[in-house]
Amino acid sequence: MDILKTDLKESEDRLLSPLVYAYIGDAVYELFVRNKVIAENPNLTPYLYYLKTTMYVRASSQAMAIKKLYEELDENERRIVKRGRNAKTKTIPKNAKLSDYKYATALEALIGYLYLENNNERLNYILSQVYQIITKEHNIIKSN
């Protein structure tokens, strides 16, 4: 995966489309959440993992988290979030409000941007904060 990140970074001197950042950010976020849920609940069935994970990856949860985290972002991160939120997408959300979907895209764009920039320290901080915010907001109980 590092080769992919390097190739993308070297081939682009300018910012990528916010939807490209969101596309990779969605995968990074999903993997982070799955790892956390499994680490905190090592003895669940795949279906129960799925149920716990959906609480973190639904648009409404992501939207709530990025809104709460927004004041902690630096100027550049806020710019990426705004570009992600305002990106024109052809996808119409089925199970989410359009405003939540746009903010979820903004969060995923930020995650994708930090990932592709190899800003791992900041990426891990943002992912951890989002996870904690959603856990607290939904009173999600760990099995351990």
UniProtKB/TrEMBL annotation:
<comment type="function">
    <text>Involved in correct processing of both the 5' and 3' ends of 23S rRNA precursor. Processes 30S rRNA precursor transcript even in absence of ribonuclease 3 (Rnc); Rnc processes 30S rRNA into smaller rRNA precursors.</text>
</comment>
<keyword id="KW-0694">RNA-binding</keyword>
<comment type="subunit">
    <text>Homodimer.</text>
</comment>
<comment type="similarity">
    <text>Belongs to the MrnC RNase family.</text>
</comment>
<keyword id="KW-0540">Nuclease</keyword>
<dbReference type="Pfam" id="PF00636">
    <property type="entry name" value="Ribonuclease_3"/>
</dbReference>
<dbReference type="GO" id="GO:0006364">
    <property type="term" value="P:rRNA processing"/>
</dbReference>
<keyword id="KW-0690">Ribosome biogenesis</keyword>
<dbReference type="InterPro" id="IPR000999">
    <property type="entry name" value="RNase_III_dom"/>
</dbReference>
<dbReference type="GO" id="GO:0005737">
    <property type="term" value="C:cytoplasm"/>
</dbReference>
<keyword id="KW-0698">rRNA processing</keyword>
<keyword id="KW-0963">Cytoplasm</keyword>
<dbReference type="GO" id="GO:0004525">
    <property type="term" value="F:ribonuclease III activity"/>
</dbReference>
<keyword id="KW-0378">Hydrolase</keyword>
<feature type="domain" description="RNase III">
    <location>
        <begin position="21"/>
        <end position="118"/>
    </location>
</feature>
<protein>
    <recommendedName>
        <fullName>Mini-ribonuclease 3</fullName>
        <ecNumber>3.1.26.-</ecNumber>
    </recommendedName>
</protein>
<keyword id="KW-0460">Magnesium</keyword>
<keyword id="KW-0699">rRNA-binding</keyword>
<feature type="active site">
    <location>
        <position position="26"/>
    </location>
</feature>
<dbReference type="InterPro" id="IPR036389">
    <property type="entry name" value="RNase_III_sf"/>
</dbReference>
<dbReference type="GO" id="GO:0019843">
    <property type="term" value="F:rRNA binding"/>
</dbReference>
<dbReference type="InterPro" id="IPR008226">
    <property type="entry name" value="Mini3_fam"/>
</dbReference>
<keyword id="KW-0255">Endonuclease</keyword>
